């Protein structure tokens, strides 16, 4: 019973506000989903992202996919997800919190050892838009130090803001601190552990939204995601998609031959 109560408290703390549209003094990341396999438009957010070098998709037109996972706490599925990624030689980025690093150091170590990128999701999962720059800096640096302590990844350069909340100020601050904001172009309600609907639901949600250059947000607490991942990767490879890392995207974006993304 105690374990169940703790899981509920952690769930509410980390994922309770993900669907917020406007929050605090910031914006909640969002867009209109489409089913025409195109990058969704993000309206007024696009100019802000361009200005500060943030990403939510790869605009090169190439059939690339970037898998990202948010890790606030562990439900027992991350190892299964890592097994599939290893088998299929697919890179991913895991955005972790301080709670996750503290409770699951061996999984964080394994992520890095198997070639995945560990991203910064903050230490305590706060709303950056109501914080000072110094407080935001402490959140990011504390998480980075925690990751460095348990893994061979000593620096973190990609940031996913807690609850997807951001504004122009937090985008600028992250740049000043050496971070690149990474949002997403595909997501669905996968984080509620009490409302999992089976692997086909996760599979269908992603396949309906898939598009060239997708940055996909998934949560490792989802049994649906863990069970569908192998099928998703297999089918998307058949359709000609390649799985890339965020490093590939950012490096490509800097090449002189053309502009990719922002």
UniProtKB/TrEMBL annotation:
A Pfam family that the UniProt record links to this protein: Polysacc_deac_1
Any GO molecular function: hydrolase activity, acting on carbon-nitrogen (but not peptide) bonds
Biological process terms in GO annotation: carbohydrate metabolic process
Superkingdom, taxonomy of origin: Bacteria
GO cellular component, one term: membrane
Gene3D superfamilies named among the record's database cross-references: Glycoside hydrolase/deacetylase
Annotated NodB homology domain residues: 63-244
CDD domains in the cross-refs: CE4_BsPdaA_like (cd10948)
UniProt protein name: Delta-lactam-biosynthetic de-N-acetylase
Gene name of the encoded protein: pdaA
């Amino acid at each position: 019973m105690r374990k169940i109560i703790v899981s509920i408290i952690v769930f509410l703390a980390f994922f309770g506000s993900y669907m917020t549209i406007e929050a605090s003094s910031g914006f909640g990341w969002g867009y209109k989903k489409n089913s025409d396999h195109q990058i969704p438009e993000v309206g007024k957010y696009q100019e802000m992202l361009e200005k500060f070098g943030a990403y939510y998709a790869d605009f090169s037109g190439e059939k690339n996919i970037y898998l990202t996972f948010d890790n606030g706490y562990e439900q027992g599925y991350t190892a299964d997800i890592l097994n599939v990624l290893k088998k299929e030689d697919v890179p991913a980025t895991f955005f972790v919190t301080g709670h996750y690093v503290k409770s699951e150091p061996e999984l964080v170590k394994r992520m890095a050892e198997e070639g995945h990128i560990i991203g910064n999701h903050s230490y305590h999962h706060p709303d950056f838009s109501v914080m000072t720059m110094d407080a935001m800096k402490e959140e990011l640096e504390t998480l980075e130090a925690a990751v460095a302590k348990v893994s061979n990844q000593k620096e973190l350069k990609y940031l996913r803001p807690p609850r997807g909340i951001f504004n122009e100020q937090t985008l600028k601050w992250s740049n000043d601190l050496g971070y690149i904001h990474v949002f997403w172009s595909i997501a669905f309600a996968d984080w509620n552990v009490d409302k999992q609907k089976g692997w086909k639901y996760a599979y269908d949600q992603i396949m309906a939204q898939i598009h060239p250059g997708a940055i996909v947000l998934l949560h490792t607490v989802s049994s649906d995601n863990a069970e569908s991942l192998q099928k998703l990767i297999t089918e998307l490879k058949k359709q000609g998609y390649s799985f890339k890392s965020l490093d590939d995207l950012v490096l490509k974006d800097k090449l002189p031959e053309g502009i990719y993304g922002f």
